[in-house]
UniProtKB/TrEMBL annotation:
Protein name (database record): N-(5'-phosphoribosyl)anthranilate isomerase
Pathway: Amino-acid biosynthesis; L-tryptophan biosynthesis; L-tryptophan from chorismate: step 3/5
Organism: Flaviaesturariibacter amylovorans
Reaction(s) this enzyme catalyzes, per UniProt: N-(5-phospho-beta-D-ribosyl)anthranilate = 1-(2-carboxyphenylamino)-1-deoxy-D-ribulose 5-phosphate
Enzyme Commission no: 5.3.1.24
């Protein structure tokens, strides 16, 4: 089971995440977010490029040329497209970078119909909660909806996952669950994580999943 910590805004916290063994950090490169990592000074961008941990850029309806430029500049492993990006948009970027398409899920969402056009043009899916905003709401959705859907692509599970959700994660099995994505519920303020709480969560996540062999590649 992989762990992504999203919404970090300092190089020191990214390096700490790397030391802890977090798999991915998410940089919110969307100016409309409370935890936007923008703007960078040139010096910070240079430092960011060199941080050892795999970095995922989080975007909302961004210009594709900007996403491509950021991918090179910051050495991004993948981009998380959290807005209303079309399948064509995803296909246009995919030969340059891994694509994680985020879907916002509500009680009445037809997940199969929503994801079908994206199946061939993404590397991963990500499931978040549908709210009035694009993401980072701290609110969760009913994971049982994923069990009922025909999801057959590796996915990131997100949306209000908090330090107390380990038992819930332990009880949720899905053959395509790849990564747990944590964000606002681990913050002391927007953009600043409590890394001690992240460390405890990570070690308990690993301990609780040690009996599972699910998608640990
Ligand atoms: O974190 C944000 O501010 C954000 C803004 C716009 C799009 C995505 C954003 N973050 C992503 O939202 C999900 C859920 O976060 P939370 O746990 O509910 O706080 C997560 O995947 C973040 O990557």
């Amino acid at each position: 089971m992989k762990l992504k910590v999203c919404g970090l805004t300092s190089i020191a916290q990214m390096e700490r995440a790397h030391e802890l063994g977090v798999d991915y950090v998410g940089l919110v490169l969307y100016a409309g977010s409370k935890r936007s990592a923008l703007p960078f000074t040139e010096a910070a961008a240079d430092e960011l490029e060199r941080v050892g941990i795999s970095k995922i850029g989080v975007y909302v309806n961004e210009d594709a040329a900007k996403v491509m430029a950021d991918t090179e500049r910051y050495n991004l492993t993948a981009v998380q497209l959290h807005g209303d990006e079309s399948p064509e948009y995803c296909a246009g970027l995919r030969d340059r970078v891994n694509i994680i398409k985020a879907f916002r899920i509500g009680a009445d969402t037809d997940i199969d119909a929503l994801v079908a056009p994206y199946h061939a043009v993404c590397d991963y899916f990500l499931f978040d909660t549908r709210t009035e905003d694009y993401g980072g709401s701290g609110r969760s959705f009913d994971w049982k909806l994923l069990e009922k859907a025909l999801v057959d692509k590796l996915f990131f599970l997100s949306g209000g996952i908090g330090p107390d959700d380990l038992e819930k994660i332990r009880s949720f099995y899905h053959p395509f669950l790849y990564c747990i994505d944590i964000n606002s519920r681990f913050e002391t303020e927007p953009g600043v994580k409590d890394m001690a709480v992240v460390a405890t969560f990570l070690s308990e996540l690993h301990a609780s999943r040690s009996g599972h062999v699910q998608n640990d590649h």
